[in-house]
Amino acid sequence: MPYINVKLNVKESDEVREKIADIVLENTTTILNKKADVTSVLVEFVPQNTWSVGGKNYVTFYLDIKITKGTNTKEQKANYIKKCYKDFQELLGEITPASYIVIDEVDGDSWGFEGLTQEYRYIQSKIL
To answer: Which of 6, 13, 53, 89 is most exposed, with minimal Cβ within 10 Å?
Structure first.
């Protein structure tokens, strides 16, 4: 049940928004093995002149994904970061290397959806 927020400083367009959402949904389901039907993606555009890296304005992005702690391996997370960066680079062209992807691992008792925590869902799945 990931929640994903992507901020980027390119000209706002529905086409780019849709492609970004497709990239993160595809990588989240195939690399991190998350369910598409409970993956939430928010894509936000900010003016390029409001975002600087090293005091200069470059094309950049920030992807923040929240997942349940302990549900993915280090290898899966590393592959996710690598693939998302590569896919964004192919879509956006030259981007600053200081474009960040952060995977936040949240304890299962600290978040959920449909009014139930992830820990509760896990425990319920183990009860026969």
So the answer is: 13
In the numeric block, which tokens belong to residue 2?
Answer: 């990931």
**Are the beta carbons of 80 and 103 closer than 8 angstroms?**
yes
Question: Token digits for 97?
Answer: 């290397």
Residues 109-124 have a mean pLDDT of: 90
pLDDT tens, position by position, 4-22? 999 999 999 999 999 999 9
Alpha carbon of 54 to those of 61, 92, 102: distances in Å? 14, 20, 19
